[in-house]
Amino acid sequence: MTNSYAVPAIVAITLVTVVIGAFGLRLARSTSDFLVASREVSPHWNAAAISGEYLSAASFLGVAGLILKYGVDVLWYPVGFAAGYLALLLFVAAPLRRSGAFTLPDFCQLRLGAPWLRKLATAFVIFIGWLYLVPQLQGAGLTLRAVTGAHYTLGVFLVAGVVTANVALGGMRSITYVQAFQYWLKLTALAVPVIFLLGHWQRQGQPPIPTPTEWLLPLVGEEHGLFATYSLILATFLGTMGLPHVLVRFYTNSDGAAARRTTLVVLGLVGLFYLFPTIYGVLGRFYTPDLVATGETDTVVLALPGAAIGGLAGELLGALVAAGAFAAFLSTSSGLLTAVAGVLSTDVLGRGSVRSFRWSAVVAGAVPAALALRVDALDVSQVVGLAFAVAASSFCPLLVLGIWWRGLTDIGAAAGIMAGGGSAVGAVLVTVVGPPLSGWAATLVEQPAAWTVPLAFTVMVTVSIMSRRRVPASVGAIMLRLHAPDALRADTPR
Amino acid sequence: MSEEKPQRVRIVLADIPRPSRTAATRTELTEQTHVGDALVRGLVRAQLALAVRLTAVVAIGLGGLPLLFAVAPVVADQRLFGVSLPWLLLGALAYPFLFAVGWAYVRLSTRAERDFTDLVERP
């Protein structure tokens, strides 16, 4: 299914990304500009940027592929990806912005005053960031191979190279504009073909879509389906707030109220986007049934316009979708890379100067690129789901308890992260490199959130209570800082 | 590039409230007197209660669906406007529902903060 218009479309999208990045480069002068866009980004730009960054290969390609393959049960993936922003809004957005923390390690130090806890948080940020970057690069390789027949390695290197250069040279200011632009591009690239596809299906007289029972109805023919579903719900609802590239963005809001408004707009934008992958998945049952047979369901979004409509229109729409897919890889990878490079440059390789940020970006991009070359057999959506589970079992309890509970201590936080996050990391490693499991063991390892998240919360609370004397003396002042309305600090210089 | 270091410090330590005016209650807040402490605790509790209530709305309204489908499979077999009910609920209606809950939260929490501000700034 090579598409002769796809290459120009992908080249164009990559060039536009570089050009907007370069445009931002001229504006980025100080470290503050570089890392957080000097906090001058308006809520609407910021919301589009957050959404653009968030809608990854898993959203753009993976969700439709999963729906094509498994049907109604996986509709919880997009619902959870969107609902994660509601949890973020309810429990984290405004206080986190007011805390002034730029990264999760910053939050640890600020809230618990323990420099050693930074190291643990940094390790988890890097693990989650790389776990999430690998499938993005992999998706790029698969897409380029699917639409042009190019070698898998080329797509990986193309995206890794462009993104690393862009982040290293332009920093955050430039990617704010890149990301905002890419949200609208992704929405267009998915929505416009849907209009044509549905119109085409109407003109054909609405041929019935084959709907086997286990595909159409929930919890049919799946082992431990209810447990797996709730585990998925927990991971996605609670994991979003712990993703490093999501949190970094909140610092670019001007104050707590703006952070809330931004999050609400994001919830709307992301929800709007997720209406479309479902339609691809459903129409794919009729137009591209062979993908189910071969197991290449991840490419349904790319293949559908050509298979259903065909001709010049089909090819052009296919090229549009391929461009959107590349926008997804570029934008999510940029955000992840900025986040990972940020903690690398402040906590591991340097002290947060522009130079160390640039070097960190190179390291942060090179490692997942090398990993992506080795693991092209891994399932894209599954890995992303595991990244959510790790985030939900480590940073979600840290943030929620840190913001709302005075009793959290540094030892409690560390114990909770090690117990919950550590178990989730173990589950990831067993899933990716371990032996194939069956029965309950398989369910517990493939969808770990239902036990690792409660474990993390329980351990964090219990150990904190046991080490009550270590509650920071400044906790009252910190609570005030996190929760006092913005109006009460109007006289504070921003 | 000599301005790099001070800039970085500003990032990490941004927004420590340093009131220059001396409204009495505001001083009580920042100096952690008993009154100030009670005020902040009250606000935090109110905001948390709001977030938890809205979480319960989502937990029941959306989180209850898998259980409902498991307990009463006949519900999952219904059709509305020619679309299978679970598909309609999860594929489309879940998103406006989530947005509505978020919208309600922004309104209510902003109002709670305004009330708190009025209380503190009251002469």
From TrEMBL, chain A:
- UniProt-annotated location(s): Cell membrane
Transmembrane region positions? 6-25, 45-68, 74-96, 116-133, 153-171, 183-201, 227-251, 263-283, 320-344, 356-373, 385-405, 417-437, 449-466
Topological relation to the membrane, as annotated: Multi-pass membrane protein
- Where does the signal peptide begin and end? none
Which Pfam families does the entry mention? SSF
Any idea which UniProt keywords this protein has?
Answer: Cell membrane, Membrane, Symport, Transmembrane, Transmembrane helix, Transport
The record's similarity note reads: Belongs to the sodium:solute symporter (SSF) (TC 2.A.21) family.
Q: What is this protein called?
A: Cation acetate symporter
Q: Which organism is it from?
A: Luedemannella helvata
Q: State the organism's lineage.
A: Bacteria, Bacillati, Actinomycetota, Actinomycetes, Micromonosporales
Automatic annotation (TrEMBL), chain B:
The superkingdom of the source organism is Bacteria
Q: Does the keyword Membrane apply?
A: yes
Q: Which residues cross the membrane?
A: 50-75, 87-106
Question: Which keywords does this Swiss-Prot/TrEMBL entry list?
Answer: Membrane, Transmembrane, Transmembrane helix
Name of the protein in its database record: DUF485 domain-containing protein
